[in-house]
Amino acid sequence: MINEENDNIFFLMNEETTESESQISDLSNILNELNDTLLTAEINKIYKQNYDQFDLTIPQIVNYNSNFTLKELLLICDYYGMTKFVKSNKFNKEMIIIFLVDFENNPENEEIVCKRKNMWFYINEIKNDKYMKKYVMW
User: Helix, strand or coil for residue 70?
Assistant: First the structure.
């Protein structure tokens, strides 16, 4: 005859923690807390850098928006070699300004940006000179 009952085996296992295992557990908790603290510090550092960068971009956007015409912005784009990209994507003035500010705040472009600003300064100085302004067709 076949037994129809479920014959299950039950067992209970108790682990006794030794002193070294509890020390490992404590060290693990300390490491987790340290990692959390370091991660929080790194996040705060990145946030501060982005916030500082944001503080610099707002005045640039306002400056370009209030002191430059679309034609002047396109001249700047032309100097950087991005006129074709800007025109092909049909950027409006606000989009061009954001694109320029993003480009100019990229550390890789620092050299060309400084050179462009320096040249624009010289052009404005020549345009403001009584004698030399007749030689500048800007």
Answer: helix
Tens-place pLDDT, residues 10-49: 767 776 666 666 677 777 788 777 767 766 766 666 556 5
CB 38 within 8 A of CB 47: no
Which stretches of the chain are DSSP H helices? 19-67, 70-80, 83-88, 93-104, 110-128
Residues 6+ away with beta carbon under 8 Å from 68: 76
| DSSP structure class, residue 16 | P
**Cα separation, 26 vs 72, whole angstroms:** 64
Q: Using a cut of 0.70, tell me whether the model's pTM lies above it.
A: no
Cα Dmax for the chain: 121
CA atoms within 13 A on the CB side of 34: 6
- C-alpha closest to that of 80 among 62, 58, 96: 96
